[in-house]
Amino acid sequence: MALIDDLRATRAEGESAHTRRVFLQAVGAGALALANVGTAVTAVRYLWPEVLFEPETRFRIDRPDDIAVGTLTVLPQQKVYVMHAASGFIAMSAVCTHLGCLTQYERENNRILCPCHGSQFAPDGSARQGPAPRPLPRLALSVERGLLVVDTSKVVAPETVLKV
Ligand code: FES
User: Fold this and answer.
1) CA-to-CA distance for 11 and 140, rounded, in angstroms?
2) Which has the higher per-residue pLDDT, 164 or 60?
3) Residues 2 and 79 both lie in one domain
4) Bridge partners of 73?
5) Rounded mean pLDDT of the chain?
6) Which residue of 30, 99, 122, 151 is 20 to 30 Å from 128, comparing CA positions?
7) Is 20 in the same domain as 101?
8) What's the structural domain count of the chain?
9) Is the Cβ atom of 96 under 6 angstroms away from ligand 1?
10) pTM of the model
11) Is residue 161 part of a domain?
12) CA angle 95, 80, 127 (to 5 degrees)
């Protein structure tokens, strides 16, 4: 009887080892397949360019004669102000120089106000009240085919004015 019990115990151990081996093989094959899929996906994605479509940085506004002296034109989509001062045209960013909030022009008080922390700017972009440390950056402005053209990709010197 002891011999039969030994044989049964050996057979049970063999079945258990067989089951464990099959399980580990399946896990290994699954991990290998997952790694291969990851590699294939990465290789295929590498073939497609990562193109970033950015908004246009140059845009036309209006004819200079159509903008009255003392008028501030607000272009919220482009985040730009264009001021027609007595000395000429000024284009400036509407993004606050403190932490980058979008400023708003208050026509009734003739000031540019930042809603985030209360900075105030004059209509020519100069800083009136902090915490903004600098005036609004001036942007390149030109006249092309009779129209004012702002280029938001070019920041110009703070005193730049376009005389038309
Ligand atoms: S972001 Fe404009 S005052 Fe802070």
Assistant:
1) 87
2) 60
3) no
4) 82
5) 87
6) 151
7) no
8) 2
9) yes
10) 0.64
11) no
12) 50
Instruction: Identify whether residues 46 and 82 lie together within a single domain.
Output: no
> Does residue 163 lie within any of the structural domains?
no
3-class state of residue 102 by DSSP? strand
Pocket test for ligand 1, best of 119, 120, 121, 136 (most atoms within 8 A of CB): 119
The answer to whether residue 160 is domain-embedded is no
Ligand 1 nearest atom to the CA of residue 114, by list position: 2
100 and 45 housed in the same domain: no
Q: Are residues 36 and 99 in the same domain?
A: no
- Rounded mean pLDDT, 135-142: 93
User: 103 C-alpha to center of ligand 1: Å?
Assistant: 8
* Buried/exposed code over 19-42 (b: 16+ C-beta within 10 A; e: otherwise): eeeeeeeeeeeeeeeeeeeeeeee
Q: Residue with the nearest Cα to atom 1 of ligand 1?
A: 99
Domain with 27 in it: 1-53
Q: What is the mean pLDDT of residues 86-115?
A: 91
Residue 102's pLDDT is 93
